[in-house]
Amino acid sequence: MSESDLVTFGETMLRLSPPDQERLEDAREFEVRAGGAESNVAIAAQRLGTPATWMSKVPETPLGRRTVGELRQHGIDTEVVWSHRGRQGTYYLERAGEPRGTNVIYDRENTAVSTAKARELDLDTIKDARVFFTTGITPALSSTLRDTTASLLKAAREGGTTTAFDFNYRRKLWSPEEAEETMTHLFPGIDVLVIAARDARTVLGFEGDPRQLAHKLGSQYEFETVVVTRGSEGAIGWHDSVVHEQPAYDTDTVSRIGTGDAFTGAFIARRLEGDDVPTALEYAAATAALKRTIPGDVAQVTEEEVEAVVREGGEALSR
Amino acid sequence: MSESDLVTFGETMLRLSPPDQERLEDAREFEVRAGGAESNVAIAAQRLGTPATWMSKVPETPLGRRTVGELRQHGIDTEVVWSHRGRQGTYYLERAGEPRGTNVIYDRENTAVSTAKARELDLDTIKDARVFFTTGITPALSSTLRDTTASLLKAAREGGTTTAFDFNYRRKLWSPEEAEETMTHLFPGIDVLVIAARDARTVLGFEGDPRQLAHKLGSQYEFETVVVTRGSEGAIGWHDSVVHEQPAYDTDTVSRIGTGDAFTGAFIARRLEGDDVPTALEYAAATAALKRTIPGDVAQVTEEEVEAVVREGGEALSR
Amino acid sequence: MSESDLVTFGETMLRLSPPDQERLEDAREFEVRAGGAESNVAIAAQRLGTPATWMSKVPETPLGRRTVGELRQHGIDTEVVWSHRGRQGTYYLERAGEPRGTNVIYDRENTAVSTAKARELDLDTIKDARVFFTTGITPALSSTLRDTTASLLKAAREGGTTTAFDFNYRRKLWSPEEAEETMTHLFPGIDVLVIAARDARTVLGFEGDPRQLAHKLGSQYEFETVVVTRGSEGAIGWHDSVVHEQPAYDTDTVSRIGTGDAFTGAFIARRLEGDDVPTALEYAAATAALKRTIPGDVAQVTEEEVEAVVREGGEALSR
Amino acid sequence: MSESDLVTFGETMLRLSPPDQERLEDAREFEVRAGGAESNVAIAAQRLGTPATWMSKVPETPLGRRTVGELRQHGIDTEVVWSHRGRQGTYYLERAGEPRGTNVIYDRENTAVSTAKARELDLDTIKDARVFFTTGITPALSSTLRDTTASLLKAAREGGTTTAFDFNYRRKLWSPEEAEETMTHLFPGIDVLVIAARDARTVLGFEGDPRQLAHKLGSQYEFETVVVTRGSEGAIGWHDSVVHEQPAYDTDTVSRIGTGDAFTGAFIARRLEGDDVPTALEYAAATAALKRTIPGDVAQVTEEEVEAVVREGGEALSR
Amino acid sequence: MSESDLVTFGETMLRLSPPDQERLEDAREFEVRAGGAESNVAIAAQRLGTPATWMSKVPETPLGRRTVGELRQHGIDTEVVWSHRGRQGTYYLERAGEPRGTNVIYDRENTAVSTAKARELDLDTIKDARVFFTTGITPALSSTLRDTTASLLKAAREGGTTTAFDFNYRRKLWSPEEAEETMTHLFPGIDVLVIAARDARTVLGFEGDPRQLAHKLGSQYEFETVVVTRGSEGAIGWHDSVVHEQPAYDTDTVSRIGTGDAFTGAFIARRLEGDDVPTALEYAAATAALKRTIPGDVAQVTEEEVEAVVREGGEALSR
Amino acid sequence: MSESDLVTFGETMLRLSPPDQERLEDAREFEVRAGGAESNVAIAAQRLGTPATWMSKVPETPLGRRTVGELRQHGIDTEVVWSHRGRQGTYYLERAGEPRGTNVIYDRENTAVSTAKARELDLDTIKDARVFFTTGITPALSSTLRDTTASLLKAAREGGTTTAFDFNYRRKLWSPEEAEETMTHLFPGIDVLVIAARDARTVLGFEGDPRQLAHKLGSQYEFETVVVTRGSEGAIGWHDSVVHEQPAYDTDTVSRIGTGDAFTGAFIARRLEGDDVPTALEYAAATAALKRTIPGDVAQVTEEEVEAVVREGGEALSR
Question: Which among A243, B65, B171, E164 counts the fewest CB atoms within 10 Å?
């Protein structure tokens, strides 16, 4: 059993992508990297000083071990159920500028993680943590994981562990209707919700500007904190009925993937350090900005770098 | 004998280029790709649903076979005279931003294709096609090919095959005077002419804005259709004495090479599908836009992608 | 409908392998190539002058198109049912010397091809061919494919097409018992059987030296021709109750994968050219030897190269 | 404080090597890997099931973090004093066949680790372990590390931790005389000594065949266990005055570097599992054999693979 | 002894950088290139037609020979004292967009060149040259090099050789106070000073706009020529009490490193060709612009390219 | 004019080769290196301490400059006539084991060097050298070069420069009859002849064992020295009517290309140093052995490495 302040649970896939902006259809080689929302969040938090553990079920194969090894390289602990059944999820990433646009092809059916049951997992690790985190991707992967997600959130509550959740709607995994039904059932077990303004509108049917979305969500579901993200336009934090606005930094972007996870991981880490919501949002935005300069899914940043962006960030604010 | 709606004839070279923006003078490795206007056009048309065949004369060497193999990979058929004499043409491409500028060094003298005579080629394939296409590069390569080009256009006419021709003036191959003389002799055998506004002015001596150029060319030489291209400013289509204007799409460009060929191939394919000229121009511009997001010479696109650009293209139009 | 002398049917996977002898567990990049027994056989035959078509069901995705494109590059025709359901099969290859040994991890469940039914496929292409070929891998992939294999062999017989079959037992796909039952039911529809001596013993339960195996198999099941392969010790051909022995050539091996397919493709091609069995075996062994000097699954050889090996092969024979 | 059965202490360098067998003098790129005897041993033990921690002092720079991250990827824990002074050690590796021979250039002066004092390190981690391991490279790096090595061995003894030591004489670091004097002073604090027969002769001045060397060393210095290694000729284990001989396995070698460390790590792991010396030697030889098939310094093996070599190893024995 | 118009003296390091914008912390490979201000200047001058020699002290190792070989590749001569002591300096370059920013980590302590004494060097080569050049980096590397720099400038004066000096303050090597004291002592031996406006202000304490800085510097220290550089805003030349302003060209930049050296090398070359200061500044700006389109430290340009930029540069001028 | 002890004249090509043992027909990238017999010989001599200059005519293009730059990197001087006409010669190298065998495709017609006339070249450089060297490849390239070769040999004689010549028959360039006629006309101008035993037999029609060949050649044409090479079986030196036999060293070979040139360059260098023929042959064999461990055409060796092979070579001798 590991002892981390933050425990996350979810799937991490192998990401296969042709070099540069080559087409999958023409590829002779793939770059291989591990990527998944929950491990990305754990790593971002760890890099900002919060001991973090990623929990999952992984096939006992070279591919599974490879995935776990890469996560450990970034400094987090891993608490893994090794499985002799089920695939390692993969996804194919084809990068492109407009009007082609970056494209993702999932190959994540029948994975080991999709069979993970709460009773297989070390619930004490969750109960002993200060924050437990997962995303809306997890319950979208299988009906088993729908139950597991609910059980883990319940275990966290029992242990007095704060629960944080990134809504992360993926239309390639399920319909808005399915997502809404599943997620709103989970909401009562969640303390901190991160959600894209777009998802709040198209999946949950809320209306209004992002400030209104945050307020409506927070009030209706009695979250402790709500963060509404708006991509390059920044984020809104709602806490104690007060709304805080955080613009995004300008960046020379090399990879957008993982930006939201970097934001969320840093936000959680700084809240755990005792920062108030506006300060945590500022560090989250700075971490996200640095992430955008880094290839791959993962926010390989240092606290010093994040602090430098926050410190010198005045003129760097987009507006 | 293959049975394609579109048959193209011309040279396809091996393109050797250092990675990224390295200098040729410092290169330790070259990327290798096949590229040629006529095969690019065939591939673009094929990708949009028009069965296409590229016809040429190629050395019976690993380099020649490599060139043909790459073209087949993209889905077209090839109708090749294998030659035991003559080189495989190559060109060296050095990519650079301004003020250095991308540079091309041809090494295409004494090639197998430069000796291709009409009697070696399968004229029935041309006669049975719906469109025959070549470019102004072909007659520039040798006096033999000047005669061959004329003979192929003649055979196409005899078979009732529409003839399409991209003017494609290359100053590294011949002088404007030579080009003008040769090309204007070919014009009576051509139904559809594609020409850059710049070439219409500097080689053929026409004056006026692109709309005027299209109209003058069409009227004077009695083409069925004229397309005047203006790079990032779009294109003009002239047909039945009516002029149609097609703006270019905004793109995040990774490679400009082959953009014109993608445009032309898509235009031909859509005309063969029965589209009117304005619609065909729109698909042509969308295909060209996608091409600019793809490394290499070739428009590796799908019909769905092109349609998506056309459909969502309203706001993407440059102006 | 294509018109080839040889038609093969089966699955072609994408092969993902780390460079050199790196471990999958440590890989940062994968080389990507297409590989499958039936397309390998088609390519080997085509390279020796026999027009060949590979038939299959493939997902309508970039990965599926990539697989088909690579096969076309090697010169064969493809007759593909494009599917909107089912995965593209992949396999991971980890190369290693002894005592680690090269290892293969299949990820080929729920593929498009595993749902291919005979009524979806163009049976006329098979009926119009001179030889139809598949392997024991195909019926091992799904119960649907068990039926399909039987139906295709039946269609071939109806069309007067010779049927050739490589036993190719794969223990990672099914048990010896399942394989024996399925295969022996298929045997009456097969004219030419290729089988490893090891499989004849451990799956079919035959005993004796390879000459005896060939004779027993041929007599018991009334095959027209039986080829028993013995890896680096060569092969035995049985035809008209006569046994012919063909040693293997010594080689500087870079990749053993695809050697058997190269052998079989060349054997079929030369038999179609009218060679007697001993001569066809000699060309088959020479093609297999060349394949072992070539990275990847595919016998990228020329007739001239094969003939040179046969011609100069006296002293190159092992033993 | 981590809780591992095995704790090792020493320097891990970044290894920079041109691809394949290119010369350093001509290199345009270097492969980058972490490598060091003590971390190699920890990883080999961990891979065989023994929780292991590597302890060191590392510069707080991207290079230092990179080194530690790579070690964590292989599954071990790291207990690191981060330093704001001192370099990250590097070494340049040029691979070559005979008669050129592989060459190593150290660039490891003024490193962070060379300033590591015992009082900076977490001695409790050592005291709570079951085995503490370091090598003769450590005291060769600086006079500070000579003292530190002695202090760590003393702390281990105080904690009841078994001490294991690989003699590992490096002539590029110090003279035989310096090595002999330093090492023999350390011997009384060491339980398990691993030493190359060559070093026993040329540095310590012992004579005789390897069995005699093992016996003389064990008797004279009252070690609990002595292992005398002989490269491709295997190893000798001496324990309770009994000598055990272990031949090496035949291998297709891609990299000899790290073979001895793989051997030692596996030996320690199996002894901790309760194996007797001959059995532990057999697993050690099998792990070393697998290592030789793997590029890089590190024995990325699994227990299953090692067991398979031991199980099937009868005929694989060299002799 | 070589006979060059320009002789430069200083350190050239090996530059190790991960591909693209990858983090050092995650790197598996480094690109390797030679780079140093004084060799960069020599190469830029040579490329513009001025025979140039780089003089230094280099370790007699593969790394040292590699560095010298790469410089020779670019056409200059090298006059090297081969040393059996001292390291080859290296630096690690991590490229990044904002807000991360490109970062450099020096590993250049205890190098061979830091021990170079004037009496080891071939002073006649300097005395016979027309210009001797070094930078403020050289005296920052060691106290020995402080003396050596002074001695070489003195030798140049004795030989009637013009002395040129780029101030090049590096805060990672010394403090502004140290730099100021050392440099102002060297000033009386210098004819041509190149200095960044920023350094003139923060190290030397001058105030005013760049024109004023140039004038104050020139007057106070009696330089023959002063060039004040302002990065993307161009440069100011002061000569005979007249100030000339040279804007920078707009560029598609791939690497800023070495831009200043390209500028200085071209300026020296054109002055040696007899150009007046404004013309030399124009060529210098054009060379710097081309450099920014070239990866690596070195201005691999041709005279023709530089002339083309100057000739067509009217509209390319920034501002 | 450069001042070298050894001057060589000939063509150096760009060598384009797919990685590892990939087929040209499947290549996506080529490695690029410079290679030519005469520059290889100059480099080998230079590496053993003999100042050497390579003389040629080269196109004034990036490809030409690239070739010359790479040669300079290896330390030799270059004396080049830059040409605005004629191609840069290239050759394609496909590496393969048996029975495929390494294959070379020349693309060296119409090169700049093929037009080189003696009056364009700096004959004084030859006259002032101690040895002038070229090979039988040079006169095979064009009739112009036949004359030029004769003129250069004549100029060397006039200057008192020893002439050395490697017969180097290339059947892809001319017939044995043409070669014999041309070469035997050149023989009277040659002092030192290097020739493969195979060429002496099949082109010149000599018979006997290699010792006899050396003696017959030396006596009949009155050479000062004859070296007959026999590949992996070593070489025979004939001088003053005495025959010396030099076996070849055993090697782990990565590239055979350039082995003969390494041998010849070292032989010349050691003769210039004053070694007798047997000693020079020994160094030549050692240099050739080291070359075989190095990728590429060029003997990137050091004197120390060669001496180490000679010193420790007793047991390394083949036989």
Answer: B171
pLDDT at E2 over 70: no
What tokens does B319 get?
């102006």
Q: Cβ separation of D23 and F300 shorter than 8 Å? A: yes
- CA nearest to F303, candidates F44, F75, F24: F44
Q: Would you state the pLDDT for residue C315?
A: 42
Residue A252 Cα, gap to closest chain E Cα (Å):
5
Q: Give me the pLDDT at residue F315, please.
A: 42
**A316: confidence class by pLDDT, cuts 50, 70, 90:** very low
pLDDT tens digit sequence for C165-211: 999 999 999 999 999 999 999 999 999 999 999 999 999 999 999 99
Please give the full DSSP string across D135-197, using - where no structure is assigned: ETHHHHH-HHHHHHHHHHHHHHHHHT-EEEEE----TTTS-HHHHHHHHHHHGGG-SEEEEEH
CA–CA distance, B266 with B287 (Å, rounded to integer): 7
- The closest of F6, F20, F58, F36 to F297, measured between CA atoms, is F36
Mutate to test the interface with B, among F15, F17, F58, F63 (most CBs of B within 10 A): F63
Average pLDDT over residues C262-271: 98
Q: Please state, as a whole number, how many other Cβ atoms lie within 10 Å of the Cβ of residue C155.
A: 20
What pLDDT shows up at residue E314? 45
Specify the CATH superfamily of domain E6-12+37-87+114-318.
Ribokinase (3.40.1190.20)
Q: Identify the residue among C72, C76, C78, C82 best suited for mutation to test binding to B, counting B beta carbons within 10 A and taking the highest.
A: C72
The size of the A-B interface in CB pairs under 8 A is: 42
Our answer to whether residue F250 is catalytic in this structure is no
pLDDT tens digits along B85-118: 999 999 999 999 999 999 999 999 999 999 999 9
List chain A residues with CB under 8 Å of B262. Answer: none
Alpha carbon of E121: minimum distance to chain A alpha carbons (Å): 44
User: What is the secondary structure of chain B as a DSSP string?
Assistant: ----SEEEE---EEEEE-STT--GGG-SEEEEEEE-HHHHHHHHHHHTT--EEEEEEEESSHHHHHHHHHHHHTT-EEEEEEESSSBPPEEEEE---TTT--EEEEE-TTBSGGG--GGGS-HHHHHHSSEEEEETHHHHH-HHHHHHHHHHHHHHHHHT-EEEEE----TTTS-HHHHHHHHHHHGGG-SEEEEEHHHHHHTT---S-HHHHHHHHHHHHT-SEEEEE-GGG-EEEEETTEEEEEPPBP---S--TTHHHHHHHHHHHHHHTT--HHHHHHHHHHHHHHHTTSSSSS----HHHHHHHHHT-GGGB--
Please report all neighbours of C, defined by 3+ CB atom pairs within 8 A. A, B, D, F
- The rounded Cα A278 to chain-centroid distance in angstroms is 20
Residue range D190-249, pLDDT digits in tens: 999 999 999 999 999 999 999 999 999 999 999 999 999 998 899 999 999 999 999 999
Close Cβ partners of C126 (under 8 Å, ≥ 6 residues apart): C7, C9, C55, C132, C152, C155, C156, C159, C161
CA distance E286 to chain B (A): 9
Q: What is the largest CA-CA distance in chain D?
A: 54
Q: Give the start-end residues of each E strand in chain C.
A: 6-9, 13-17, 29-35, 52-59, 77-83, 90-94, 103-107, 131-135, 162-166, 192-196, 225-229, 235-239, 242-246
Instruction: Considering the candidates B77, B166, B191, B261, report the single residue annotated as catalytic.
Output: B261
Neighboring chain C residues of D305 at a CB cutoff of 8 Å? 100
Report d(CA B284, CA B248) in Å as an integer.
10
| CA atoms of B103 and A319, how far apart (whole Å) | 40
Question: pLDDT tens, D75-105?
Answer: 999 999 999 999 999 999 999 999 999 999 9
